[in-house]
Amino acid sequence: MTTTTRTAVVTGAARGIGAGVAKRLAADGFAVAVIDLDEAACKPVAEEIEATGGRALAVGVDVADEQGVQAAVDRIAKELGEPTVLVNNAGIIRDNLMFKMTADDWDAVMNVHLRGSFLMTRAVQGYMTKAGWGRIVSLSSTSALGNRGQANYAAAKAGLQGFTKTLAFELGKFGVTANAIAPGFIETEMTAATAERVGMPFEEFKKAAASQIPVARTGRPADIAHAVSFFVSEGAGFVSGQVLYVAGGPKA
User: Fold this and answer.
1) What's phi and psi for 87, nearest 5 deg?
2) How far does CA 49 lie from the centroid of its chain?
3) CA separation for the pair 241, 177 (Å, rounded)
4) DSSP 8-state code for residue 102
């Protein structure tokens, strides 16, 4: 870290993986912009960071809204500091078998994951290139390898891997790295909702998932936050264009 505190932006940070990442980056010494759809939902995370001596800003924005994203990033630069770390974590699911999937279900998932990551990255990268230092981490998924009932989500998460590799080519000469993390089963509100949708108690759902994972447990937001912490560190400047599967075992 430099003597000046760097500013990190984490999307989808009101809960789950995003909240875990925001808190970890704050602990690592970053000022953190906590972004989600609802600013009020971001405030508890920002307040928790501030209560432990960190600096944080809660920002409500739809990452798929071009003008909203630019306004949010302008506000972050002014109120918290010019951002040089971006974690594209915002995501939604609209699961269904493809023959039942609506065009709206497809578009909603693409807009948040792909359009949102594009808009956020485009808005922030100028600060990174100006600083001659930057870190971009986008959240993919093991579903990028294909998953029943997730044609939209799988395509979006695979798309983020191609997006990441392209960013690595384009931004590397400016001191900016771009990497992706592909989580496996992580215990979050999203996976709890999936369990509820299939009519299974969450503990049972987690146990079934763990039985298929080599390390014999399901993941937690802190597992992903640790990987993000590495990718955005000073020492990871020679690691770019990579996809790290954080899934408790190897993935093809």
Assistant:
1) -115, 110
2) 18
3) 7
4) -
For the entire predicted model, the pTM comes to 0.96
Q: What pLDDT is recorded for position 1?
A: 41
Inform me whether the pLDDT recorded for 82 exceeds 90.
yes
Q: Which fold has domain 7-184+221-245?
A: Rossmann fold (3.40.50)
Question: pLDDT tens across 217-240, in order?
Answer: 999 999 999 999 999 999 999 999
Helix (H) or strand (E) holding 178: strand 176-183
Average the pLDDT over 98-123 and give the result. 98
In which residue are the tokens 């909240």 written? Answer: 19
Burial environment of residue 132 by CB neighbours within 10 A (0 to 12, 13 to 18, 19 or more): exposed
* Rg from Cα positions in the chain: 17
Banded pLDDT at 3 (limits 50, 70, 90): very low
Cα dihedral: 102, 105, 111, 114 (round 10): -100
* CA–CA separation, 14 and 38 (whole Å): 8
Q: CA 70, 158, 169: angle at the middle one, nearest 5?
A: 65
For residue 134, what are its two tokens?
Answer: 């930057």
Domain boundaries, the chain: 7-184+221-245, 185-218
Q: Which of 153, 163, 205, 231 is catalytic?
A: 153
Q: What value does the mean pLDDT of the chain take?
A: 96
CA distance 209 to 248: 11
153 is catalytic: yes
Q: Which residue has the higher pLDDT, 2 or 125?
A: 125
Residue 216 Ramachandran class (φ > 0 left, ψ -120 to 50 alpha, else beta): left
